[in-house]
């Protein structure tokens, strides 16, 4: 296989990864790593590096749009980034000492978990009881809706912070955005409205990924010839996805397709990790 | 006029978009050069060896980019892409300074310090 054919295959694969990722809101990294490692037999270290860069690109691209709408809670994002960047740095350092087999198995487990989460029903919740720490940190805010701004409060700041640190470790270790874990921290633990938690998570992913990418860059995980088609493909896919999303009402069946594809990939990663084929 | 959250938000939106467009343009340009020169060689990513030394060192990376080496140009674009979210934190720190929200100036600086530590620790371990 020549470099041109290899590049074209990755471009097409990454395009679909980006498309699926943006339609389901889970990011393209979860599909990129199995595509590169299982199908194209790329070493998982290079795959992690390429995935991280694509995560940064999609986060910056979509965050730019969300931030302007004023839904993102910037103070909350900045405060929680302390936890995610510290976690990401530790994860990137740990990655060197953990055998690739275990990384593959852990990746499979996180994939399964993300697939289950993507099927969860999402109901908008508004909490207004005040918490001392949230008030001190000025985390309570409002977001715009068609019926005017909605005020919301933030709960359990400590619990959310710990969960964010964990999301950061996973992101640094596996080269994904761990958007699913970030959303759990904000939406299940801190009780933040769904729209705010997804956009704020998206906004944070770029910074988290950058914190581990600077480590990987120096370790030679980020290989230009491989990263180039991955980033370009994912970005175009995500762009198409965001256009489709505006025009469709129901994404229910899509979530099922995504969950099934991801579960299958998860099984493959775990199997290959256990048999040592990765 | 008082500096508000919405001003910071529109500034950050611009930083993110501009950084992304410029870096992707550079990656794309480098990619074309890379495929033109190396399109028919055999890719080798099966065994992890790291990247060639000329891409690792800032001096030689810049030198190779000026010689229009595709891989070096792609790598520059990627570095700029990685720097974009970090720049975003820098700009929000400035925004919080203008808003006189010193608690958040401090919080943003902690985030920057962690990223900086991460940068310095890359070669260790």
Give an overview in words.
- Chain A: This is Probable membrane transporter protein.
- Chain A: InterPro entries: TM_pro_TauE-like, TSUP.
- Chain A: Keywords: Cell membrane, Membrane, Transmembrane, Transmembrane helix, Transport.
- Chain A has one domain (3-275).
- Helix content of chain A is 74%, strand content 2%.
- Chain A has helices at 3-24, 29-39, 44-69, 74-94, 100-118, 132-136, 157-174, 179-189, 194-219, 224-247, 252-275; strands at 141-143, 150-152.
- In chain A, strands 1-2 form a two-stranded antiparallel ribbon.
- Chain A is globular, with a radius of gyration of 18 Å.
- By secondary structure, chain B is an all-alpha fold.
- Helices cover 78% and strands 0% of the residues of chain B.
- Chain B is built from five helices and no strands.
- The relative contact order of chain B is 0.15.
- The model of chain B has no long low-confidence stretch (mean pLDDT 89).
- At the A-B interface, helix 1, helix 3, helix 4, helix 9 and helix 10 of A face helix 1, helix 4 and helix 5 of B.
The number of E-state strands of chain B comes to 0
Mean of the pLDDT scores of chain B? 89
Proportion of residues in extended strands of chain B: under 5%
Biggest interface pair, residues each? A-B, 68 and 66 residues
**Which structural class do the helices and strands of chain A define?**
mainly alpha
**How much helix, percentage-wise, in residues of chain A?**
over 70%
* Structure annotation, total helices of chain A: 11
Enumerate the spans of chain B where pLDDT stays under 50 for 5 or more consecutive residues: none
């Amino acid at each position: 296989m020549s470099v041109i054919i290899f590049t074209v295959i990755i471009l097409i694969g990454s395009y679909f990864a980006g498309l699926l990722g943006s339609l389901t809101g889970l990011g393209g990294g979860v599909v990129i790593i199995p595509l590169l490692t299982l199908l194209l037999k790329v070493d998982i270290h290079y795959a992690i590096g390429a995935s991280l860069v694509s995560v940064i690109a999609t986060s910056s691209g979509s965050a730019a749009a969300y931030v302007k709408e004023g839904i993102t809670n910037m103070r909350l994002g900045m405060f929680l980034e302390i936890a995610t960047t510290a976690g990401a740095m530790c994860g990137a350092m740990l990655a060197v000492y953990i055998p690739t087999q275990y990384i593959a198995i852990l990746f499979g487990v996180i994939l399964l978990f993300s697939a289950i989460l993507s099927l969860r029903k999402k109901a908008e919740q508004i909490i207004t009881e005040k918490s001392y720490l949230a008030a001190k940190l000025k985390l309570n805010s409002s977001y715009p809706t068609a019926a005017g701004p909605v005020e919301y409060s933030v709960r359990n700041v400590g619990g959310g912070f710990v969960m964010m640190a964990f999301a950061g470790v996973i992101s640094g270790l596996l080269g994904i955005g761990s958007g699913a874990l970030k959303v759990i921290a904000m939406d299940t633990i801190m009780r933040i409205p769904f729209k705010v938690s997804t956009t704020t998570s998206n906004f944070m992913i770029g910074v988290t990924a950058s914190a581990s990418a600077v480590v990987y860059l120096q370790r030679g995980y980020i290989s230009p010839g491989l990263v180039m088609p991955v980033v370009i493909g994912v970005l175009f896919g995500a762009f198409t996805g965001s256009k489709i999303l505006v025009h469709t009402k129901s994404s229910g069946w899509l979530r099922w397709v995504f969950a099934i594809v991801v579960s299958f990939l998860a099984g493959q990663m775990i199997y290959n990790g256990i048999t040592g084929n990765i | 006029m008082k500096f508000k959250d919405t001003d910071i938000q529109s500034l950050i939106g611009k930083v993110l978009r501009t950084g992304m467009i410029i870096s992707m343009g550079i990656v794309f340009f480098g990619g074309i050069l890379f495929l033109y020169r190396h399109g028919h060689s055999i890719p080798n990513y099966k065994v992890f060896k790291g990247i060639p030394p000329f891409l690792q060192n800032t001096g030689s990376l810049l030198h190779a980019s000026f010689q229009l080496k595709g891989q070096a140009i792609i790598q520059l674009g990627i570095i700029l892409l990685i720097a974009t979210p970090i720049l975003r934190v820098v700009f929000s720190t400035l925004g919080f300074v203008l808003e006189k929200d010193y608690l958040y100036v401090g919080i943003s600086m902690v985030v920057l310090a962690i990223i900086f530590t991460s940068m310095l620790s890359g070669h260790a371990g």
